[in-house]
Specification:
Layout lengths: L15 H16 L2 E10 L3 E11 L8 E10 L4 E11 L6
Antiparallel strand pairs: 1-2, 2-3, 3-4
InterPro entries: Gas-vesicle_GvpO
Protein name: Gas vesicle synthesis protein GvpO
Organism: Actinacidiphila guanduensis
Length: 96
């Protein structure tokens, strides 16, 4: 999680890799699900917008696990401001 010491007082953004680690950790805590990765990220006026893939229902074999993609908005320090599930799918499903 972001601490006061980690925050940038000058208004500068945290490095992208660090922000994504923060986002993944916060989403895992909020949703109580295993993070699978970040599929997209972009800078916004307020900070960052990311699409985070989460394992919502682990199954065996793992290709049948239920996954979800969440759109996550953060401030420039990587603190999650809001999120929305935008898609659910089986891990083995391929987009066409």
């Amino acid at each position: 999680m972001t601490t006061k010491e980690d925050s940038t007082d000058s208004g500068e953004r945290m490095p992208l890799a660090r922000v994504m680690r923060e986002v993944i950790g916060q989403m895992a805590e909020l949703l109580q699900c295993e993070p699978a990765g970040v599929s997209a990220v972009e800078a916004t006026d307020r900070g960052w917008r990311a699409h985070v893939e989460m394992v919502e229902l682990p199954r065996v074999p793992d290709t049948t696990s239920v996954m979800a993609s969440y759109r996550v908005d953060t401030n420039s320090n990587g603190e999650v401001l809001g999120y929305e599930r935008v898609r659910r799918y089986s891990r083995g499903q391929v987009d066409r």
